[in-house]
């Protein structure tokens, strides 16, 4: 048997006309999610081992599949998808049997939120490269406290999120996407990191139900073809101590509310998406400097204490990717995903590179930790390495398929995530963009879009109040609720005026963009005059 290539049968039969290929590494938690999902859907696939301990992820052959050098990668005919979240969403659309998302929007949003907490707020912080860096620069003791802090914080949020809505599984009595992400993550927390789970009774209970599922058992790391070979070297070792290798009008019957903070890049993505869809919304500022994200009121909306949070009637969605996917399903106008599956998968992959492989590693809390424990000079090197690595992967991914925008001549989800990230790389981190000509060109196209201009941090109500409001002594003052409300109404009015915007390149789009930009600037000037 060739351990690097083996056919794996799902729990039923595959409906694929071509053989699915999964590039995986047995210890990779991201690969584990995809194996679990494929088994749940009953899809047969060929297992292609990528030995991370031997550096096979850096081979030219694998780089052509995923320039970020990460597993998993799924190949389905001529469609290549990297990133576990993007793969699962692709599978859900292409192979709808044994659905991983429930039919009602509220529970779909809950599943996406739980999956995103694992994929963006927990797993990126215990990657082997990150843990090795912490151990090398800050000491072995810091590695344990780092893991316990970040994993514990994520689990505490998931416990609060799911305790009142879980059934036999995370969101009811069926196995859905939240379970696909939770099962491997909880297993790793217990077996690899020896995390004390007594504070998380809901997660502990549902994990016990996962362990008896045949689809989960078949996805276990030790049951993969490449693990069988490697375990020959580990027979005398404790497996639990193993080291990991390496707006116009809204069509909603209720007003959308966006809880946001003006400097948050995740909030920025959602503002951009809402503007592109022409959805009016109420801006609810959450001041991080005042600790408003830690208030009991906000914790009820998002136990992870992060913005953005979208409230749409009785549906509450935290996490920017979950929000954008929810908006795409609920409000299909001005689609953010193209109709063909190949380009949809490409958009999801690019968006996930930003929100899972770049942004979580330049959070203020991470950068403050690096500066405090290692030194100020390491902060810059950390940023250049992690942001630069992600942008380099995006450059390779998009250079041959981009048009005016990331995946063609229409603005789609990849652009929604790329535009704020590139802006932050340039303005906040002063990153040298000469290595990324495709991304630099795309950013020039983003900057003239009225919807992007309206989403800029400095044009949000909480930012303008801070920067533009002066009292009679010429010192910063505080705007009244009435003034902020006036501004919000004016923004709604402006976005209403641009509801018939054309995509760039379409007939008349340039004049609409120019007129819309003037209207937005006019609104800003009005508010400055009112608030001064």
Automatic annotation (TrEMBL):
Q: Which Pfam families match?
A: GST_N_2, GST_N_3
In its UniProt entry, the species of origin is given as Protea cynaroides
Similarity comment: Belongs to the GST superfamily. Zeta family.
Listed GO MF terms: glutathione transferase activity; maleylacetoacetate isomerase activity
Q: What class of enzyme is it?
A: transferase
PROSITE patterns documented for this protein: GST_CTER, GST_NTER
Tell me the domain of life: Eukaryota
Q: What is this protein called?
A: glutathione transferase
One GO term under biological process is: glutathione metabolic process
Q: Which reaction does it catalyse?
A: RX + glutathione = an S-substituted glutathione + a halide anion + H(+)
As recorded in UniProt, its EC number(s) are: 2.5.1.18
């Amino acid at each position: 048997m060739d351990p690097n290539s083996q056919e794996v049968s799902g729990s039923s039969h595959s409906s694929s006309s071509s053989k699915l290929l999964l590039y995986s590494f047995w210890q990779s938690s991201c690969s584990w999610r995809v194996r679990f999902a494929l088994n749940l859907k009953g899809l047969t696939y060929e297992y292609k081992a990528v030995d991370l301990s031997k550096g096979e992820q850096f081979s030219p052959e694998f780089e052509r599949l995923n320039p970020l050098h990460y597993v998993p990668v799924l190949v389905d005919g001529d469609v290549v998808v990297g990133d576990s979240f993007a793969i699962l969403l692709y599978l859900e659309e292409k192979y709808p049997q044994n659905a991983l998302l429930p039919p009602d929007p509220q529970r779909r949003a809950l599943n996406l939120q739980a999956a995103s907490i694992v994929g963006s707020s927990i797993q990126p912080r215990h990657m082997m490269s990150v843990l090795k860096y912490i151990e090398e620069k800050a000491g072995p003791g810091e590695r344990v406290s780092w893991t316990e802090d970040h994993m514990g914080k994520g689990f505490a949020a998931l416990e609060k999120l799911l305790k009142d809505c879980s059934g036999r599984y995370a969101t009811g009595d069926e196995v859905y996407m939240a379970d696909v992400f939770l099962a491997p993550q909880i297993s790793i927390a217990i077996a690899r990191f020896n995390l004390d789970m007594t504070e998380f009774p809901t997660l502990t209970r549902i994990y016990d139900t996962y362990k008896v599922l045949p689809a989960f058992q078949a996805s276990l790391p030790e049951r993969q073809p490449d693990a069988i070979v490697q375990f020959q070297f580990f027979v005398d070792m404790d497996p639990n101590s193993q080291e990991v290798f390496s707006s116009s009008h809204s069509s909603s019957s209720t007003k959308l509310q966006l809880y946001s903070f003006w400097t948050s890049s995740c909030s920025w993505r959602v503002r951009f998406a809402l503007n592109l869809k022409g959805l009016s919304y109420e801006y609810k500022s959450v001041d991080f400097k005042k600790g408003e994200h830690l208030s009991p009121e906000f914790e009820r909306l998002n136990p992870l204490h992060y913005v953005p949070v979208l409230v749409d009637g009785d549906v509450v969605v935290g996490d920017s990717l979950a929000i954008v996917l929810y908006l795409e399903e609920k409000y299909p106008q001005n689609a953010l995903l193209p109709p063909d599956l190949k380009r949809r998968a490409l958009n999801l992959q690019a968006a996930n590179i930003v929100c899972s492989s770049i942004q979580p590693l330049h959070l203020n809390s991470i950068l403050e930790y690096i500066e405090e424990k290692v030194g100020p000079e390491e902060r810059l090197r950390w940023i250049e390495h992690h942001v630069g690595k992600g942008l380099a992967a995006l450059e390779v991914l998009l250079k041959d398929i981009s048009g005016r925008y990331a995946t063609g001549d229409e603005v789609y989800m990849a652009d929604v995530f790329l535009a704020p990230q590139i802006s932050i790389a340039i303005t906040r981190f002063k990153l040298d963009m000469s290595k990324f000509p495709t991304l630099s060109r795309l950013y020039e196209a983003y900057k003239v879009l009225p919807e992007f201009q309206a989403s800029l941090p400095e044009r949000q109500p909480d930012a303008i109040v801070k920067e533009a409001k002066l009292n009679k002594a010429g010192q910063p003052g505080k705007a009244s609720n009435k003034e902020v409300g006036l501004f919000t109404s004016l923004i709604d009015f402006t976005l209403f005026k641009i509801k018939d915007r054309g995509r760039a390149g379409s007939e008349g789009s340039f004049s609409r963009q120019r007129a819309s930009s003037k209207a937005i600037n006019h609104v800003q000037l009005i508010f400055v005059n009112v608030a001064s």
